[in-house]
Amino acid sequence: MIWNPNKECMGREQMRALQSKRLQKLVQYVYHNVPFYRHKMQAMDVAPEDIKSIDDIVKLPFTTKQDLRDNYPYGLQAAPPSEIVRVHASSGTTGNPTIVGYTRKDLAVWSEVMARALTAYGVTRDDTFSVSYGYGLFTGGLGAHYGVENLGATVIPTSTGNTEKHIRLIRDLKISGIACTPSYALYLAETLDKMGLKKEDLGLRVGAFGAEPWTENMRHEIEQRLGIKGFNLYGLSEIMGPGVSYECQEQNGSHINEDHFYPEIINPETLEQLPNGEQGELVFTTLTKEGMPLLRYRTKDLCTLHDEVCACGRTSIKMGRIVGRSDDMLIIRGINVFPSQVESVILEMQEFEPQYMLVVDRVNNLDTLQVQVEVRREQFSDDIGRMLAMKKRLADRLKSVLSISADVRLMEPGSIERSQGKGKHVIDNRQLK
Length: 433
Ligand code: ADP
Ligand code: ZN
Hints:
By secondary structure, the protein is of the alpha/beta class. The chain is built from 11 helices and 21 strands. The chain has 2 domains: 1-325, Rossmann fold (3-Layer(aba) Sandwich), CATH 3.40.50; 330-432, ANL, C-terminal domain (GMP Synthetase, Chain A, domain 3, 2-Layer Sandwich).
């Protein structure tokens, strides 16, 4: 099923024409309503009339998270305050959080793109769907919530927390679908075990997982433990929230809602646009947003774009999995390391739980990497020889994938802190020194 075949299966030329028209209108709109963009464009000597087609996007300025912070709270808002009906904020671990205002129309677009995603996952009006992203300033909860309602399925706004009660609700209300972070999906699986219940006691069928990077191996793990089919859901608050892109049944990339969010991949150093297929930083322009429209917003997310025809019938461009955020990338002894590489290795091996932590430090001017990983309960033993062999197998495998050696620490099951929202996988002590 396809929610909006008109847009999701639009001919490529037609899509480009639509994007060109929308970009022209957007540029006029921000030029006249957002001094920040007017000044930037004037400094670059670009007038709104210079933008004639979507290809002219390269003439436009980029926007960074720092720009949002510098203009905190409402400096980049284009719509008058009376038009704003809701405000969200992204987590803002450092400095000011970024504040995003939505008009009524923005919220309608959001629930439209979320309904497209859910339909692609196979969710229908007959499903009962639990939204276990956090409700509140975070976009995950309310964003998914209104998408489920728009689709016409029954939404259960469980949010996070009180996981045992949640599991009983999944069982008693015959909840068939769930939206949450992959970390929370694992936590659900663990809680299910603890309660002495089995996945067969629940009727979960489909999961919309996102808000943090996750690997193919993690997908298999969650699918197997919850008896579910897991789909990728991507988004970010600056652009909208969840629903910027979504996987279809083919599961080889996520379709971007490019009639609303125009994607580019750039080289983060030179800022040049890269051709499809090459990995770089993902950049979005919000083609239809009214509240806080953004030109060429640099997401810091690293991935590739693909324009091959998809067997599902949708014609929109697809993005590959997020390899990591450029600010998640660790440089250890000069070598780039992503937590997702470690996750992938750990989950290839039967011995380990998908629970790990990378601890980076600097000792005598040399970077060190420690990988803590939980051993599965049935694999944990007093047999030191066996444990040492297990440790060596993981260390060897990590060395061959990361090209640097890591000090492996085998941990008891349950000892690494669990997350109900976005998982935390790195402690970098070098920043403190
Ligand atoms: P922040 O985490 O910056 O406060 P958000 O809560 O809006 O902001 O989260 C958006 C970010 O979450 C994205 O830029 C991306 O890094 C990550 N993210 C969201 N969905 C996915 C996904 N499906 N796969 C990988 N990463 C994701
Ligand atoms: Zn598809």
